[in-house]
D-alanyl-D-alanine dipeptidase
Amino acid sequence: MKSYQAISIKDCGEALVAIPQDTFILETPHPYKKLGAPYEGISPYVLRESVLKGLQQAQNELQKWQPGWQIKVFDAYRPIAVQQFMVDYTFKSLCQQYPNQSESAIAQQVSQFWAQPSNDPNTPPPHSTGAAIDITLVNEKGETLNLGGAIDEISPRSYPDFYQDATGKSEQIYHQRRELLRHIMFSADFRQHPKEWWHFSLGDQLWAWLKSQETSNSNIVAYYGRV
Ligand SMILES: C[C@@H](N)C(=O)N[C@H](C)C(=O)O
Ligand SMILES: [Zn+2]
């Protein structure tokens, strides 16, 4: 069990709402649907009402710094069956890629990046709460920007500050873009997964745990549980 999963959840009961396509860019076709993940008619592009408002606020902040740029949503809501599918898919892909590594070492790597597909309502995977999103940036020409690594890459390159001390020009640009992404999301009170530059959440257990670490306030609870 991860430390953040010990945080209590007091679900506020907000509904899931669609992420508007005229405001945000949505990755199309959806990356996990493309792989055959079992959505059973459920849209991955929904979020809790206040989380969507926060995302809008973050995009407004982005446009103060970079007029015309937009947030691109790679993934949002994920049923637990999809979480299970993606954990299994990632495990199998890594086993094929690294045949000399033990299965337990690979499972350990997968668990650094993918949450357990837990069915326990006290420990929901973040994306099954409607409060977590995986995002990147698009410029004013509609080009998806390079932030120095692919979303879902199982590697230290995915750590948000991987390029912090880089001296190369491109690497410094990746770092600046990652910092901009973090800045706009933090300005709307989101928090970032410590190992994934693209993953942010607002109001779930990981968010509450990160806030409690910042403030040493152990009374912070999560207000979004599994939907
Ligand atoms: C790996 C990535 N897509 C992701 O969403 N990771 C978090 C931790 C999750 O599985 O909830
Ligand atoms: Zn994520």
Summary: Residues 2-215 form a domain with the Muramoyl-pentapeptide Carboxypeptidase; domain 2 fold (CATH 3.30.1380.10). The helical segments are 31-34, 49-65, 80-97, 103-113, 169-187, 205-215. The mean pLDDT is 97. The two ends are 20 Å apart (CA to CA).
